[in-house]
């Protein structure tokens, strides 16, 4: 089975290593690499569709007619002339100009696909031939030769992500982190009609929309028309390539959205999604003063006294998003946190927006979600089709304390955190069945993970028993081994024999500790598995009844009884592993086991490696079980009756009157308040320690770079 995450990582590592050893910087390198990923995908798709077409071709005289371009129409594949096929480039003669050949392939594809004309990279002749040959081989791995569009879509997005993190392509501004895009998609559920992103970057909003629709078993291309606009030529090209890789179609045009409006889409869009540039301060008021998208009386938030330009364009964007929506349209967009509380002209516009009753939800996002910016942001949501009972209400969610640490500088939402935030919106909309479905899914996953624990614990027995026997056999032989140990030097008045005897005593005490630990672990394991089997058998009979809140709470309460035992078992596994490791180190470092024939170092290493593997599997099974159960607890503890309630520190539904009392602020933190921190458990502590470790590692790297820079400066000064 293809491990897509592992493949993504290995491809990036290989490709980035090539760049590091070349004369190219990340900006010069990123677009051509993405072009090769596209070319590999296009060839795969061409070959797959070609095989389908050939099966249905009519034959005359025992010969089938040749395939034509027309055969590919309506097949979601680009017809590739021979010079544009990956295999031809891969098999070029050694003296061939590979850069020229790839450029020609890109031009040939553009001639076949209208959406891609002028889009694909053609800078390959600036690459060293050896580098190009290596790159072409990297994307010709066995796993990629028959990979589907979904796989290439994932790889393309992964490389976009990594290039953004490395600072390529205009500082990463073209790429909205997947967590934020998916949050927007989950909240507005774009599943039909016209979808506009007037600051589309690399078309991430459209791609995630495609995933959303496909996950429902529907064809995004058949249900949706994508419209995108982007100021940068590079980003426009990235967007068109991204759509093509994901077998999506759309109209992506280059233009400055402040001045180039899409007239025919005003009031016609079912959905608007965007991550516009924040706090732009150079918009000409003369050019936009009659813009019909600026629907409020105030229109422009304010003009800078010195420059005579719009001082901050955030509220221009916000008005655009509203104006493009039809009478039942929804919008979701990223906005600077400062916009929620901004005063003066921005406050006047915000009041008018609130008065429309279309403001539906506001979500505060914490720091470090963007790759090049550490500032927090806010997600805004409009819904012009809100039902009467919610017309006068706004859902405020403060998600600043909800995140997963990726690196010291980057955070995101885990899959479950994203679903939990979405579940809050479901309850706000009265969609209880979806909320219960998610809790039921978590309970199923909890029990699925729990069912794997027994097997992982059983696998611990063999390497543990063999290692214990090897260690005990060595211990039994130590009486005859003392002469070898007397070679130790005298230390602090102790003769070598005394030191050796002390080491032997310590070693044997460790073995006794190991034996006691194994006995305790075995007793706990047997008891837990016995009880868990009974519970799992009971759960198997409850599948159909877990659709109600009461049944789910009962099931969760039953399973909660196992949590202390699972945590204790996890500690015992780690302790036994530590004692085994300590005993081995004593034998090899203090008692010179490797010098003695009785010590089978090869077998010891084999069993130690096996123990490491099964120990990690057992810990993973326990942690996965506890993690899934924690998701159930997170939801049920906050929404015990499976209906929306205000949760201090997290969410609150507010009325327009309450917003007016708060000076028309749309900052969730003003409304949700704070809550006491949950009691810290071992997993919380481990996560905090991981954050500290990441920060320390990053600071060490920065210190090394700074020291090198200082040394270089001193050298230049001749000091």
Features:
26 helices, alpha/beta, 719 residues, 10% strand, 9-stranded mixed beta sheet, two-stranded antiparallel sheet
Largest sheet: 9 strands, mixed
Helix content: 55-70%
Give the N-terminus to C-terminus distance in angstroms.
Answer: 59 Å
Total beta strands: 13
Determine the mean pLDDT.
87
Helical region count? 26
Q: Identify the overall geometry.
A: globular
With strands numbered from the N-terminus, the spatial order across the biggest sheet is 5-4-3-6-7-9-8-10-13
Rg over alpha carbons? 31 Å
Regions with little confidence, pLDDT below 50 for 5+ residues:
168-174
Structural class: alpha/beta
Strand content: 5-15%
Brief summary of the model shown:
With 719 residues, this protein is α/β, with parallel strands linked by helices.
Q: How does this model look, in words?
A:
This protein is an alpha/beta fold. Helix content is 55%, strand content 10%. It contains 26 helices and 13 strands. Strands 5-4-3-6-7-9-8-10-13 form a nine-stranded mixed sheet. A hairpin with a 5-residue loop joins strand 11 and strand 12 (411-412). Helix 2 (26-56) packs parallel to helix 12, helix 9 packs across helix 10 (204-214) and helix 21 (549-560) runs antiparallel to helix 23. The radius of gyration is 31 Å and the shape is globular. Residues 168-174 have low confidence and may be disordered.
């Amino acid at each position: 089975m293809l491990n897509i995450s592992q493949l993504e990582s290995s491809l990036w590592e290989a490709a980035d290593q090539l760049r590091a050893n070349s004369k190219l910087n990340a900006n010069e390198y990123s677009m051509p690499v993405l072009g090769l990923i596209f070319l590999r995908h296009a060839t795969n798709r061409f070959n797959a569709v070609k095989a389908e077409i050939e099966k249905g071709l009519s034959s005359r005289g025992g010969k089938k007619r040749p395939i034509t371009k027309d055969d590919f129409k309506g097949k979601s594949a680009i017809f590739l002339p021979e010079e544009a096929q990956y295999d031809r480039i891969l098999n070029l003669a050694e003296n061939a100009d590979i850069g020229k050949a790839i450029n020609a392939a890109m031009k040939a594809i553009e001639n076949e696909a209208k959406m891609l004309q002028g889009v694909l990279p053609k800078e390959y002749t600036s690459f060293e031939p050896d580098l190009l040959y290596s790159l072409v081989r990297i994307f010709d791995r066995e796993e990629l030769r028959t990979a589907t569009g979904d796989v290439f879509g994932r790889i393309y997005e992964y490389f976009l992500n990594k290039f953004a993190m490395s600072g390529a392509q205009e500082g990463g501004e073209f790429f909205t982190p997947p967590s934020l895009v998916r949050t927007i998609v989950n909240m507005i559920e774009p599943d039909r009609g016209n979808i506009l992103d007037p600051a589309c970057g690399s078309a991430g909003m459209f791609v995630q929309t495609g995933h959303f629709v496909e996950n429902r078993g529907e064809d995004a291309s058949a249900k949706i028309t994508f419209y995108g606009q982007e100021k940068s030529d590079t980003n426009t090209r990235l967007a068109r390539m991204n759509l093509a890789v994901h077998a999506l179609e759309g109209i992506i045009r280059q233009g400055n959205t402040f001045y180039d409006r899409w007239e025919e889409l005003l009031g016609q869009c079912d959905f608007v999604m965007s991550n516009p540039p924040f706090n732009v301060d150079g918009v000409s008021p003369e050019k936009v003063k009659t813009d019909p998208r600026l629907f409020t009386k105030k229109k422009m938030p304010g003009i800078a006294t010195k420059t005579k330009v719009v001082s901050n364009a955030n509220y221009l964007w916000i008005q655009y998003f509203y104006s493009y929506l039809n009478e039942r349209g929804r919008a979701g967009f990223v906005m600077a946190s400062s916009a929620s509380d901004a005063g003066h002209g921005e406050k006047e516009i915000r009041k008018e927006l609130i008065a429309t009753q279309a403001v539906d939800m506001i979500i505060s996002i914490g720091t470090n979600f963007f790759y090049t910016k550490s500032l927090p942001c806010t997600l805004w949501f409009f819904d012009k089709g809100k039902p009467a009972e919610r017309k006068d209400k706004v859902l405020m969610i403060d998600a600043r304390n909800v995140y997963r640490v990726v690196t010291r500088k980057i955070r995101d939402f885990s899959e479950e955190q994203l679903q939990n935030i979405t579940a809050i919106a479901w309850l706000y909309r009265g969609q209880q069945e979806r909320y219960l479905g998610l809790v039921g899914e978590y309970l199923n996953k909890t029990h699925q993970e729990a069912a794997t624990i027994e097997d992982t614990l059983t696998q611990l027995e063999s390497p543990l028993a063999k290692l214990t026997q090897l260690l005990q056999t060595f211990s039994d032989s130590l009486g005859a081994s003392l002469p070898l140990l007397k070679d130790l030097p005298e230390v602090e008045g102790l003769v070598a024999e005394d030191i050796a005897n002390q080491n032997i005593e310590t070693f044997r005490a460790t073995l006794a500790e190991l034996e006691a630990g194994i006995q305790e672990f075995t007793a706990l394991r047997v008891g837990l598995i016995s009880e868990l089997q009974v519970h799992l058998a009971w759960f198997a009979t409850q599948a159909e009844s877990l659709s109600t809140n009461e049944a789910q709470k009962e099931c969760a309460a039953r399973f909660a009884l196992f949590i202390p035992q699972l945590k204790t078992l996890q500690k015992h596994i780690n302790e036994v592993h530590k004692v085994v490791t300590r005993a081995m180190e004593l034998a090899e470092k203090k008692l010179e086991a490797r010098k003695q024939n009785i010590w089978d170092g090869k077998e010891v290493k084999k069993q130690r490696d096996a123990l490491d593997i099964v120990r990690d599997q057992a810990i993973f099974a326990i942690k996965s079980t506890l993690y899934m159960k924690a998701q159930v607890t997170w939801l049920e503890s906050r929404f015990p009756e499976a209906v929306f309630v205000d949760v201090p520190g997290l969410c609150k539904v507010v009325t327009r009157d309450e917003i007016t009392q708060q000076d028309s602020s749309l900052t969730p933190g003003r409304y949700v308040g704070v809550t006491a921190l949950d009691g810290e458990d071992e997993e919380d502590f481990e996560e905090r320690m991981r954050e500290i470790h990441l920060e320390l590692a990053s600071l060490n790297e920065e210190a090394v770079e700074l020291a090198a820079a200082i040394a270089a400066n001193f050298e230049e000064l001749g000091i």
